[in-house]
Design a protein that fits this description.
The complex is a heterodimer of chains A (about 500) and B (about 150). By secondary structure, chain A is α+β, with helices and mostly antiparallel strands. Chain A has helices at about 5-75, 80-105, 110-135, 135-145, 150-285, 290-335, 345-355, 355-360, 380-395, 455-465, 490-495; strands at about 340-345, 365-370, 375-380, 405-410, 415-425, 470-475, 480-485. Chain B has helices spanning about 15-30, 40-50, 75-85, 105-110, 125-140, and strands at about 10-15, 35-40, 65-70, 95-100, 115-120. The chains are: A alpha+beta (about 500), B alpha/beta (about 150).
Chain lengths: ~500, ~150
């Protein structure tokens, strides 16, 4: 099934577009997903920071509380060290937590509340430490027993807990989102890759099929061309063969015709000899003997018989000439061709030299194509044909103007060569264009000697060379004979030798 | 030929009686008066030359000159030539092939088979008559051996 050219282009284009779209989808999605991933990563980092800040602050507050309790119990300054360290840190850590919450834009109210609680806790702690330092340990313990510090701490812990768990929840959510993104990316990439794979292989298969069909049709065209050439060659061989058969037929017929003709002529000759003897005998009889019967015999012997013999002679002579012409034609047709490499230019030049003398006499010129190819053909045949055509050009030139003969040679398709011999002579009337190639037929005013066999002969030879000869002419203006020859005749000759 | 004790007989194998007659007359005009035995077909000619048994014994001691046309109704003259030249008794008799064929291969074949002269009949009568007269003159001077 052949792919129409248009549908092939359309299909290929669609494939190409589909592939491009798939690729664009993959790239676009990837970019979007990478952006998303980055955003999730940032969110995760921020959640982590919030959690860390919350934990750090909690630890600092707990440290402070731990130090307070130890100091209240023992009254030793050594227990105040963690308290002091924590107190120094709490402000900074609270600020960090505030920043972390601000970055996430969430739970700001909780943090405010937490920081307020921590401030109050810090104040409570400071108060108890101050009371203990001034030696009023009981008042400090009484303050602790009010449970206000514990309540503050419990509230703070609750907020810490919710902050931390919220940060963790955010972290986990971002992580889940990131996972989803990677999964989407994976699917998109795999899906797009598959689409590209499908499109590419479909496109490749279409291109392959198209190319294969192109190759097939090319091979087909080549086969057709070869077949055509073969057929032309076959036809030519057939023609050559048919031509040869006609030649053989002509040869046999003329041969067989000639045998009785030789007898007719021979015995006519014998009769002439005999009648001459009778005439001699009658001549001896004196004319005076006026015998009516003798006068009759004398008339027969001296007039009737010689007249009859004269007609027989002239008729047989004419028939003999015709048969000889046919014989010559068929004998030439039967002559074995000897294909050889010929310089057509040199051959034409040599042929033109044979008419140079006649040309000079009538101020005629001959122009021969400068470039002529080498061909393989029968030299003798070509020389005879070209000589004959040039002779005709000279013979039938126009008396009104100097003769101009142009000989052109050009290559023709099918490894053939065309020789054209054009003159400005008297020309041939339209109705005689085919007739001039027929045996014993002549055209125009019969003022030149000739038997009417030259062109028939030329046609026979050219056909034998696997060629064709044709004429184009206008009466009173000139004639062009075209000879179309195979450049290498050995193929035809070879096929015939069988 | 006339000098020999035994006169030479000219065997003429020619299917066209008119041609045979014209050949005979033109040979006579050249001054050849030998006996001419005409045959119009190959079979009779072979019987005369080689005998009914084909041994050629009948020709022993004859002086023969054979004038042979190649186109015969019952066989080709080449067959006769072959048999005559293959037979011990007749192989020395001169054979003149006088025929219409001018095919180069045919001419070669006849000489290969032992033909002594090959003449193509001229296509017009004048040439024909002339050729036969010259052949007659040639006959008048040539020596013909006795057959074995």
């Amino acid at each position: 099934m052949p792919i129409a050219r248009l549908s092939f282009i359309r299909a290929t284009l669609v494939m190409l577009l589909a592939g491009f779209a798939a690729l664009a989808l993959i790239v676009g999605t990837s970019i979007w997903l990478v952006d998303r991933t980055q955003a999730y990563a940032e969110a995760m980092v921020k959640s982590r920071a919030l959690r860390g800040a919350a934990v750090d602050l909690l630890i600092a507050v707990q440290d402070a509380e731990t130090g307070q309790r130890g100091y209240l119990l023992t009254g030793q300054d050594a227990y105040l060290r963690p308290y002091d360290a924590a107190m120094a840190e709490i402000g900074a850590r609270a600020a960090r937590l505030k920043a972390a919450v601000a970055a996430l834009a969430a739970e700001a109210a909780d943090v405010e509340r937490l920081i307020a609680l921590i401030d109050r806790k810090v104040a409570e702690l400071g108060q108890t430490i101050e009371l203990k330092k001034t030696g009023d340990g009981d008042a400090a313990l009484a303050l602790v027993r009010t449970d206000s510090g514990k309540q503050l701490m419990d509230e703070a812990r609750a907020i810490f807990g919710s902050l931390i768990s919220s940060a963790e929840a955010r972290f986990n959510a971002a992580l889940a989102e990131q996972r989803t993104s990677s999964q989407i990316l994976w699917w998109i990439t795999v899906g797009g890759g598959l689409i590209i794979l499908v499109v590419t292989s479909a496109g490749a298969s279409i291109i392959l099929r198209y190319t294969r069909e192109l190759m097939e049709s090319r091979i087909e065209v080549q086969a057709l061309a070869t077949g055509l050439e073969e057929r032309v060659a076959e036809r030519t061989v057939d023609l050559v063969r048919a031509n040869e058969e006609v030649q053989r037929f002509a040869y046999i017929v003329t041969h067989d015709l000639r045998a009785p003709l030789v007898n007719i002529m021979g015995f006519t000759s014998e009769l002439e000899t005999s009648i001459a003897e009778i005439q001699a005998l009658i001549a001896d009889i004196p004319a005076g003997a006026a015998d009516a019967k003798l006068a009759e015999v004398r008339r027969v012997a001296e007039q009737d018989v010689p007249e009859a013999l004269g007609f027989i002679r002239s008729s047989t002579r004419k028939m003999d000439a015709l048969i000889n012409a046919i014989l010559k034609l068929s004998r030439e047709g039967r002559r074995t061709m000897k294909p050889e490499r010929l310089d057509l230019g040199a051959l034409l030049q040599a042929a033109s030299e044979t008419i140079a003398h006649q040309l000079n006499e009538s101020q005629g010129v001959i122009e021969i194509a400068a470039k002529a190819p080498l061909i393989v053909s029968d030299r003798l045949s070509l020389e005879q044909v070209i000589g004959n055509l040039l002779d005709n050009a000279v013979k039938y030139r126009s008396p009104d103007r100097p003769l101009v003969i142009r000989v052109g040679v050009e290559a023709r398709p099918g490894n053939r060569v065309l020789i054209e011999i054009a003159d400005n002579g008297r020309g041939i009337a339209e109705q005689d264009h085919q007739r001039v190639f027929e045996l014993f037929r002549r055209s125009g005013v019969q003022d030149k000697p000739g038997e009417g066999i030259g062109l028939a002969y030329a046609q026979t030879l050219i056909r034998k060379l696997g060629g064709e000869i044709a004429v184009t002419s206008r009466l009173g203006q000139g004639t062009t004979f075209s000879i179309n020859l195979p450049r290498d005749v050995s193929a035809f000759v070879g096929s015939r030798s069988a | 030929m006339t000098d020999n004790a035994k006169p030479v007989t000219i065997i003429m194998v020619e299917d066209d009686e008119g041609h045979a007659r014209l050949i005979e007359r033109n040979i006579r005009r050249a001054g050849v008066s030998n006996e001419i035995v005409p045959f119009t077909n190959g079979t009779e000619a072979l019987v005369y030359l080689l005998g009914a048994d084909g041994s050629g014994q009948v020709s022993a001691g004859r002086h023969l000159l054979i004038l042979l046309d190649l186109n015969l109704p019952d066989m080709t003259g080449v067959d006769i030539l072959e048999k005559v030249k293959a037979n011990a008794h007749t192989r020395r008799s001169p054979v003149v092939v006088l025929t219409t064929t001018d095919d180069a291969r045919e001419i070669q074949r006849c000489y290969d088979l032992g033909a002594n002269v090959y003449i193509t009949k001229p296509v017009n009568y004048d040439g024909f008559a002339n050729a036969i007269r010259q052949l007659g003159m040639f006959f008048s001077v040539m020596q013909v051996p006795e057959t074995a």
